[in-house]
Write a structure and sequence with these properties.
Layout: E1 3-7, E2 19-25, H1 28-31, E3 42-43, H2 47-63, E4 71-79, E5 83-84, E6 88-99, E7 104-112, E8 118-127, E9 134-138, E10 143-146, H3 150-160, E11 164-169, H4 174-185, E12 189-195, H5 197-207, E13 215-218, H6 222-234, E14 240-243, H7 248-255, E15 269-275, E16 283-286, H8 296-312, E17 319-323, H9 334-347, E18 355-360, H10 362-366, H11 368-372, E19 387-389, H12 393-405, E20 410-416, E21 422-424, H13 431-448, H14 453-456
Parallel strand pairs: 11-12, 11-14, 12-13, 14-21, 16-19, 17-18, 17-19
Antiparallel strand pairs: 1-9, 2-6, 2-10, 3-5, 4-8, 6-7, 7-8, 15-16, 15-20, 20-21
Helix pairs in contact: 3-13, 4-13, 6-7
Length: about 450
């Protein structure tokens, strides 16, 4: 165990919107003395499970935010979804209100399972400490401090804009359907359900979701769902699309149809928008979904799409790093030759709006310490990239998975370059990732309707 010196957060230091998270796996030892287990392995959201959730909440408040010296006033918990033995639960608390007269602080909290479904939500009221307390802690497990919750700010931007009509394409799974309904509840989108409605109604009933208020288009199968979604987008009846449980290839087949699809003459590409606790700003990666082994002209379009997205999100001069295994031009590595060509294309105005550098290794692109020892590799991009261009889809996909698994990144996904933005999920997406993706689509639609990027983001950090 490694001892660490920790400090609490006194009342004057707490900021509205400040968050902290704590993760723990629910074990039999934790819960068996407290609750009655269902035959299917679920634990119902009763007072006993509430005790367990309350303990986790208390841990965050007492040890992390605000930390030692915090006094409890009260809490309110609402249960939404059962939790299984062996499932990890993440408690996230967020500072909502401060009362300087009595030092009371109101915090919201969310308990999510591994799939990103809300197990419990609620509020807690505490008296924040007034004096600094420094203490030695051993092996505090999986505590993450997020001083700048970028996804939450992005979601707020989406809420400030008019809700957009989104065609939810074949949402025959709980996560997509729940996310669409939650995004509607947050006033970011107006869902238009396109799927075999008998299946959707069964899923909604099982998940206890009310979908009666939403426009519904009944289809026989996923292929018809994709066809109808593209038809609605072409007709201007939806502003964006969201991938459901159908394969992305099936949806893109209709999107890219030369006669009836959504092509615009621009390269269609995917951008992963990542909120990484250890990185000081947004980090985008492209392309990890669509373009398998893009050539130089295709990479030109992929770069431009990512830069345009960054500009729409309020990043004034996006810094794009072209990744390779080497920081120098190496004839045996095609990616280094293409990187050099892309940089020259940017110099000649063939790629606009951003600053490019490459070839760069991953650490040279994002790690300021590596950049300091990089010798002759110096530029405005080195160590502070906003956008990473992967050499091919395989490298891009592995990078996103690694950043999600080891870097604890939240990953939102959007397909750009078509007539409408397309929201995509991934196997490691959680609810807030879907909400952030919806917010990105909302920003892009607003920009298309003439809202300036400066009005969409106070900052892009």
């Amino acid at each position: 165990m490694i001892e660490r010196t920790l400090q609490n957060r006194i009342f004057d230091e707490l900021e509205i919107g400040e968050t902290a998270s704590y993760s723990r796996v629910l074990t039999t030892d934790d819960i068996s003395p407290l609750v009655k287990q269902d035959p299917d392995g679920d634990y119902k959201a009763d007072n006993s499970l509430g005790l367990w959730v309350g303990v986790q909440l208390s841990y965050v408040l007492s040890n992390v935010l605000p930390g030692p010296g915090t006094s409890y006033v009260g809490e309110s918990i609402r249960f939404r979804h059962p939790l299984r033995i062996g499932e990890a639960a993440t408690i996230t608390v967020r500072v909502e209100e401060k009362d300087p007269e009595n030092h009371h602080v109101r915090l919201s909290f969310l308990c999510e399972n591994e799939a990103g479904l809300a197990v419990a939500t609620g509020t807690a009221e505490v008296i924040a400490p007034r004096e600094r307390i420094t203490f030695e802690a051993e092996d505090i497990p999986e505590v993450l401090l997020w001083r700048h919750d970028r996804y939450q700010r992005l979601i707020h931007k989406g809420q400030d804009l008019p809700p957009i009509r989104v065609g939810i394409v074949h949402p025959c799974d709980v996560m997509t359907l729940t996310s669409a309904v939650e995004a509607a509840y947050e006033n970011i989108i107006i869902p238009v359900l396109i799927a075999p409605m008998g299946r959707i109604q069964d899923i909604a009933a099982t998940a206890e979701i009310d979908i009666t208020a939403y426009e519904q288009h009944d289809t026989a199968h996923s292929h018809e769902s994709a066809e109808m979604a593209v038809e609605l987008a072409r007709a201007g009846k939806v502003d964006a699309l969201m991938q459901g449980s159908l394969e992305i290839k099936e949806l893109l087949h209709e999107v890219m149809d030369r006669r009836s699809g959504l092509q615009t003459g621009h390269r269609i590409s995917h951008v992963a928008l990542m909120d990484i606790p250890s990185y000081p700003g947004w980090l985008m990666l492209t392309d990890s979904l669509i373009n398998i082994r893009p050539h130089l002209d295709e990479k030109q379009g992929i770069c431009q799409n990512a830069i345009d997205l960054a500009l729409a999100l309020g990043i004034e001069t996006p810094k794009l790093a072209i990744l390779s295994a080497s920081n120098t031009i190496t004839p045996e590595l095609d990616s280094t030759l293409e990187a050099a060509a892309l940089c020259k294309m940017a110099d000649r105005g063939q790629i606009k709006g951003g600053v490019l550098d490459g070839p760069l290794t991953f650490d040279m692109a994002i790690n300021p310490d590596a950049a300091k020892t990089g010798g002759r590799v110096q530029s405005a991009v080195v160590g502070q990239a906003n956008i990473l261009l992967a050499p091919d889809l395989e490298a891009g996909d592995m990078l996103v998975q690694q950043l999600s698994s080891f870097g604890k990144a939240d990953v939102a996904g959007i397909i750009v370059g078509a007539q409408v933005p397309i929201i995509v999920g991934c196997r490691y997406a959680m609810m807030r990732s879907y909400l952030a993706s919806c917010a990105v689509a909302s920003v892009l639609v607003a920009q298309r309707h003439g809202v300036a990027a400066a009005a969409l983001a106070e900052d892009a950090t």
